[in-house]
Fold:
Amino acid sequence: MTSKPITIKPHEVKNQRTSVMMHLKEKGSINSWEAIKDYGITRLASIICNLRKQGYYITSNDVTFTNRFGGSGHYSNYQYVEPKVAPTNSNNE
Structure:
């Protein structure tokens, strides 16, 4: 799958989508708790869905945890996969 590179600059962060893009570019992954506490974003899955539609390759890893009552819970950790640049074959003959 071909992935689109994230090329956003810090001064271009103006909304929730660009905040998530910058976070993914700088840290590589994000989950719903980070989105809520760092950016006030409560619908991270929707933003990730739209970014995928725009051509960014973002994987989801399901994480299971034990809550304070002993029950189990689940959340997704989203990871941005940077596009691979094909090596150039330069022969200086």
